[in-house]
Amino acid sequence: MKSTTLSIILTIVISLGVLAWLGSTKASGPEKTAVSASVNSASALTTEKADYDFGTIRMKDGLVEKTFVLQNFTTSDVTIKKVTTSCMCTKAYVKTDEVGKGPFSMEGMGGFVPSVNIKVKAGGLAEIRVVFDPNAHGPAGIGPIGREVYVKDDLGRILTLRFKSVVTP
């Protein structure tokens, strides 16, 4: 019984090692970034880094913002259909070389979130500028926070952008 359990565990560990090795050797350079970001997000739009840490921010300093650059690595145009946020304290703005729209916010809170309908050309870029208001929750909003922005494309795929911070007075 012990040898059977040991054999199963050993087989699983070796299999995971082989899969990790295969995943690391399939692509290198920018192609690797595109593949891994696409798999993680399930979207044709990718970003080099979907997570951002503002560090410690003070409520009295007001709004903070971060711009995420998205790229369409596919050979087809992709349309950003909808952008929503996880909280009303966060607004998002979409911009390409041709057009910019926003602000977009949390769905269901504060009214209707309009469609974006911005096309990102094959190989093209888009920017999502995220603005966080550390004062939005008042004194109850002090401490660690984490928020998300959801970028939905025309095929229903969603790229999630995240940020975190520690809010102080």
From TrEMBL:
Alphabetized InterPro entries for the sequence: DUF1573, Ig-like_fold
In which organism is this protein found? Candidatus Taylorbacteria bacterium RIFCSPHIGHO2_02_FULL_43_32b
Its organism's taxonomic lineage begins at:
Bacteria, Candidatus Tayloriibacteriota
> Gene3D superfamilies this protein is in?
Immunoglobulins (2.60.40.10)
Q: What's this protein's name?
A: DUF1573 domain-containing protein
Which is one Pfam family of this protein? Answer: DUF1573
